[in-house]
Amino acid sequence: MAATVAQAFSSLTNGTLTPPLTPNVNESKEISRSTSPHPNITSDQNLLRLKAHLQNLPTDLLKHVHLSKIRREDPALYFSAIRDDLTGLAPIVYTPTVGEACQKYSHIYQGPEGLYLSIDDKDRIPEILAEYAANLSTTPQILVVTDGSRILGLGDLGIGGMGISVGKLNLYVAGGGVNPHGTLPVVLDMGTNTESIRNDPLYIGLRRPRASLEEATEFMDKFMAAASSAFPKAVIQHEDFYSEAAFAFLEKYKNQYRMFNDDIEGTGSVILGGFMAAAKQASAASGKALKDHRVVFLGGGSAAVGVAKEMMNFFRMQGLTEDEARERFWLIDTKGLITSTRPDVVSGKIASHKKYFIRNDTEGKEYPSLADVIEFVKPTALVGLSTTFGAFEEAVVRRMAELNETPIIFPLSNPTSKCELSFSDALNWTDGKVLFASGSPYAPIERDGLLREPGQGNNFLVFPGIGFGALQAGATQVSEGMITASAISLSEALNEEEKRAGLLYPRLDRIREVSAKVAAGVVKKAQEEGLDTNERLRGLDHEALVKEMNDAQWWP
């Protein structure tokens, strides 16, 4: 399948990275207007017409489908619309709507959107990618690759994962300033374990159970080597692999290739940035030292472990050792608090990525529920990455408010249908005291005469800057230090008005400015670690680097 689709896509694109860009309406009309009559169509009219059409579409999915068509036909028009209404359109082109689009991908399919590679063709991957690269007029700068095995907490969607690769790259362009012709979405089709998808007569992917991790690793080895050879300067972002594979691939490839995993490292960065702001506000209210915060996680998957590991850097900044920083975290999975005496831990059956956060201080007692853990730990912060809607129940939230002057509660699961706690419930159940950030967007709420704006721990705030910064630095790899630098830069990107409003994150309408600052922080750290190759940027101070990042951004 991969060879057929890849070759078809290459011919469809006439050697470019995106499906054929139709001639700009204005250009084609201007050329021929002198010889024949034509309507007087302008780009501004096209933009107004698109906005009006979107307003008339009854559902977000239909808007998503129509915008996808526009993106393939006229990227400049597409990104002009997003530029003008990023806050309104981001939930349409990405979460939460992209989740439904991935679930129904084969039903709404209108043509190839990127590179589809099948595990059945694993022995031909170098040949396929070399041929593909040879036919391109623009070399990819950013690849987002998924196997569709764990899409936004919605499960194994197989080839439908292409929607997430496309969605992420939309945000790279809109938020980070990457040229759309330098983006390449990739889906690695390794089958799917979702039987209803395999049996769907419209399904366009492989109709087989998902490959084992061993078989998938063999495929990934070939893909990573071939992609890095075909596109030697590109940054490769891994997206929505299931937990065990995500950690295994990150550990295996991080020091070999210019790559990072957004679910593990991007999520960790954006939550660290928000937690830095929240912890400072909470400590100011309570008088508690920053190093004394205690964090409970509901969720033990790749995202949860990745976030917790990245958040440890906050405590390292307060002077704690690695072991001391790790002791500030308690992780709960489906079996309860992860302890050294839990039967699956004793028997060695626990997933390897969870082992780092095993608690050894429970004296043989198990804590099976979130409420039990809250009473045991008395945390200052509660983080949700469980993909379980409503998992932060009223009694738990009220108890957090009793324990803390300003409880930090981050229900981060996407999409909204998987979120542990709504913003309205968080405000009501804490009497408005909560420091709140979610993964999906919630509307502001008026309470006690004030407009309360929810934080959104959206990776959109960091991953475009991470990828763009790595590109601009010519970084040979994306190091852990560069990821942490992105979080620090994000926390420092809050402007004075946002700080006065008590926000934990910059507003999304400033995303280009924020991404430039994040990218500058990533470049500086790459330079400090000797990982950069772009000598022109060396020696520049922070403000000069930010200006360089702004100047390098693409605009429609």
From TrEMBL:
GO terms for biological process: malate metabolic process. Keywords: Metal-binding, Oxidoreductase. GO terms for cellular component: mitochondrion. The active site is at residues 94, 168. Residues 33-43 have a biased composition (Polar residues). InterPro entries: Aminoacid_DH-like_N_sf, Malic_enzyme_CS, Malic_N_dom, Malic_N_dom_sf, Malic_NAD-bd, Malic_OxRdtase, NAD(P)-bd_dom_sf. A divalent metal cation binds at residues 239-240, 263. (S)-malate binds at residues 150, 414, 458. SUPFAM superfamilies: Aminoacid dehydrogenase-like, N-terminal domain, NAD(P)-binding Rossmann-fold domains. One of its GO terms (molecular function) is NAD binding. Residues 16-43 are annotated as: Disordered. Residues 16-26 have a biased composition (Low complexity). It holds the Pfam family malic. Residues 71-254 form the Malic enzyme N-terminal domain. Its cofactor is Mg(2+); Mn(2+). PANTHER family: MALIC ENZYME-RELATED, NADP-DEPENDENT MALIC ENZYME. Belongs to the malic enzymes family. This is Malic enzyme.
